[in-house]
Every structure is written in structure tokens, then in C-alpha cells.
Amino acid sequence: MARKRYEDLRSYRWYGADDLRSFGHRSRTLQMGYDRADWTGKPVIAVVNTWSEINPCHTHFKERAEEVKRGIWQAGGFPVELPAISLSEPFQKPTTMMYRNLLALEVEELLRSYPADGAVLMGGCDKTTPALLMGAASMNLPAIFVPAGPMLRGNWRGKSLGSGSDTWKYWAELKVGNITRKDWEEIEDGIARTPGTCMTMGTAATMMSAVEALGMSLPASSAIPAADSNHARMASQSGRRIVEMVWEDQKPSDVMTEKAFENAITTVMAIGGSTNAAIHLLAMAGRLGVPIDLQRFDTLSRRTPWLADVRPSGRFLMEDFYYAGGLPALMGELKDLLHLDAVTVSGKTLGEDIERADVYNEEVIRRRANPLNQEGGLVVLKGNLAPDGAVIKQTACDPKLLKHRGPAVVFADYNDMAARIDDPDLPVTPDSVIVLKHAGPQGGPGMPEWGMLPIPKKILQQGVRDMVRISDARMSGTSYGTCVLHVAPESWVGGPLALVEDGDIIELDVAGRRLHLDVSDAELDARRAAWVPPKRRFERGFGAIYADHITQADKGCDFDVLMGTAPTPEPEIH
Ligand code: FES
Ligand code: MG
């Protein structure tokens, strides 16, 4: 790659020009106390920071941004911190998924409208990672991702606590009286005790791992605990590296290739990652015009062993995964399944990045010869109930439900389900298939994580802990059960899920990858003709924009107008 000259930089049009506007740019930069020496001859690096006082996963980002900037200064860049909306999983309603594309749009337009030559993307809490990468991919300026990193293990009386999973576990214990209110309070004190993301293999750890495998963050960065001083040094290294990337003109489209996406998907399978990865990686690929579809996940899943014994599917936590060697160690076991010639933001190939990696704890990261499962967790289903696909996490299912035929018990929406699920008169048996409608991208709205539909109380009382459940919702990366998710098209837009009625027979065959509604085509046509579309929910605001542009799960739930690689004009300088 030919190195760029100072005059070639985007920011030169702001700082280097000799006109009225550039007088303003320079005088206003001087106003902030900078000197000409601070910017002259240097690339401007946008440090896109999703810090916020209501995002506990990113509390260290104020400090980390300083460490990133230290690296940028050292390497001869001019850092400019740009705050962007923080999608805080624990607080934002109805769901952060509603706002992923808003953050992506914000990132793209921040980079476009300001004099950025490159970007450091600071994120980690679930949706922030794909959003930052989507925006940067569309703008296609050199960019590097700084993962927030997981928090340390939770601790309660010497027992390790995992985000999400242990909350539900002890909530159930509290309800049946096995622990006291005081115990519950102590668990509350101990489950989240440092900055950083959820430290189970939920969506955050899954997506940070996926992005490292994609090549968009430094090697070995994604599992460093947020509280570890290695994390601060990784931030500075990323700052130094982005300056070089600008001179080398290494763009996201050079890194996020089809091969890189295959590497990311393979890695997600091997870590037993969150089902949400299917949606986010499709959306990211869609920004670059990389032809990855949902089916590719199934193909790669079939040949990828599950190696990371991390909760919720396994036993350990991200801190253990880090000490066991982290992602390079895991990828080192998969060399024959990865495209080792893919280039990463390190400036080297993935093969070079993981050359010296080794596994230091073979229980946490299994050797290739001793996998937890021969296949990956995620499976893609198709059939007349999900013509455009659905997903299920097969490793989280009761094996005897993997092939099942049973009558539907249908809930029209979440409130209907909440009102009737525990009704003693609900006509439900352990063989029933629970169906929830209106939980998809439009229906939720925002495709909330409702997919682990509750087991009716009267079934629980029979000792049954799993049933076949079907919805157009997502589920948390920390959930489990025979839950068919992401049914596309969703019921709100008239997908076949909208036509299911109580008592209809539904067939699930995971090995055969099939989801079938055993109702005749003639009957379904009649129901379709009688189907009344739901009333539009939003008349104004972001909700209305969202409703007009959101795509279905099999397309990644991006906005249609944000997908693809059609050129967007650079802002003119006037
Ligand atoms: Fe932020 Fe889980 S709540 S990563
Ligand atoms: Mg989550």
C-alpha cells in the first residue's frame, strides 16, 4: 500500500486549505488551547466513545479514552474525542436493539461531517459493538475497535457469580425460599463488582470475540478484563496503531472481507456464542456488500467444534477464558477451519497474529481433539413456518425435544402471554408448542429478548423444565431451552407465524433443520386472506423512522437505507 501524504488526508481540507472556513477551523482549534504544532502534518483521529453515566459496562471509558489518546499523540496523530449514544443494556427500554441502527447512523455521520481521517471505536456492551462497526464500515475510514472487556468474576461467599445466568438461578431459589432476602442482597452486591461487560459468553463477549476474529481489534484484546492494567495498555496500543493505519490507508473494507466474516462466524460457533451474533454479523456484512447469508452460519456450524467451556453453555467465565489464553488460544485450535491469510488491524495476517498462541488451561479452552460438542451451537431452521429462516441454539436444548411434534398454544403478544401463561385452565401439556407472536423487529418493537418464553406454572409443577417454544423474538446470550428464535418474516408483517392458531400441529426437526406448520396450504391461504395487519404504532419520531426502514432478522435488522455500498458524497467544504 502506498503511504498517504499529509495533503491526501481528509482533514487537510479542513486544516490545510487557505480560505475563510479553514480560518475558522484553525482559530477555533486554537481557542481550545491547542497549538498549530498539535495538528500540523498529523492525521485527525476520532475517538468515538460510548461512555455514559448510565452504562456500567463502559465506566472505565473516560480513563481509557485518555489512554487511547496517549497512544495517538505518541504515534504523531491528533486525537479528537467524540461522544456517541451509549446503548446501555441494563437500562434502555424497550430494548437497546431498537437503537443499534441509531448509533450506527450516528457513528457514520460523525465521521463524515467532522475532519476525521481514522477512528478508534470504543464499545462492548451488547449492541454498541455491532453498531460502531456498522457505522465505521459504511464510512470506510481506517478504524480500530477497542473492546470494553469483561468485568471480573462475580463473587458471593467464595462462589463465582456469572452475569445473567446466576441472577435467574438465585431468583428461582429466592422464590422457593432456598435463600433469604439478605442472601439475595449480598448477591446483588457481588455479581457486578468492577467496570466491564457481562463476563459470561453473552452477546457482549460474543461480539467482542467476533470482532477480534474479524480482524478489527488488536490480537488478544477481546478477553482482557476491563480492570486489568493490560487493558489500559491495549487501549494505548490501539491509539498508536490507528495512526499507522491512516498512513497505510488500511480501511474496514480491506479487513472485513468474506473470509474475515467466515473467521468470525467459525469463532462464534467455537466459543458457544450468543444467537444474537447471527443478526449483528449479517447487519455488519450487509454494510460492506459481503454476500454472507443466514445459511452460511448453519454450514459453518456443522463443521466447527465447540471448545470454550464458558457459561451459560459451559462452566467458566471470561476471566478464566483470558487466563487460559483468550481468543488467540482458541483460534489456534481451529487453524484448519480459519482463513489464516485474512489481514487484521495489526497489519499482519490472522495466521501471524495467532502463531505463538497456546492453551494454558485445557478445561476452559478444550483442545481440538477433545471438544465439548462436535458441532457449533447455532442451527438455522427453515420450513413453511419460517420461509426466510429461524435459529435455535441446539446445545441449550433438552435433547429429547430436538425432534418434536405437538399442538400450538398461541399468545397474541407479550401482554397476552403474561396474563395467561400461569392460568390453571390454560390448555397446555408438556408436549404443547408455545408460540408468541408480535415480538419481532416491528412487533416488539425492537425484537426484544423475550424468546426464552416462560414454562407455564402447571407444567413446572409436573417437574418439566423445557418445552418447544417459538417466537420472532431474540433471546439473551445467557438464556437456554428449546427456543426457536428470529422467525422470519415476523408475525407483525404477516409472516406465517401470524397465521398459527391454538391446536395447530407444529413439527420441529433440528437435525433435519426443519420447522413445519402442519396445516394445509388452502387453509393457510384462507387465514392469510382474513388476516388484518396490526395498526401502525408510531406516527412520529424515531419510532416512525424505525418502522419505515427496519428489515427482518434474516437481513440483520438493519435499516434498508443504510445497507449496501452505494457511494455517499463527501460533505463539501463551504
Ligand atoms: Fe452491558 Fe451485559 S449489560 S454487556
Ligand atoms: Mg445481553
TrEMBL record:
One Pfam family recorded for the sequence: ILVD_EDD_N
GO function terms (MF aspect): hydro-lyase activity; iron-sulfur cluster binding; metal ion binding
Boundaries of every Dihydroxy-acid/6-phosphogluconate dehydratase N-terminal domain copy: 42-352
Protein name (record): Dihydroxy-acid dehydratase
Family: Belongs to the IlvD/Edd family.
Classification via InterPro entries: Dihydro-acid_dehy_C, DiOHA_6PGluconate_deHydtase_CS, ILV_EDD_C, ILV_EDD_N, IlvD/EDD_N, Sugar_Degrad_Dehydratases
Residue ranges of every copy of the Dihydroxy-acid/6-phosphogluconate dehydratase C-terminal domain listed in the record: 363-557
The keyword Magnesium belongs to this UniProt entry's keyword annotation: no
Keywords of the record: Iron, Iron-sulfur, Lyase, Metal-binding
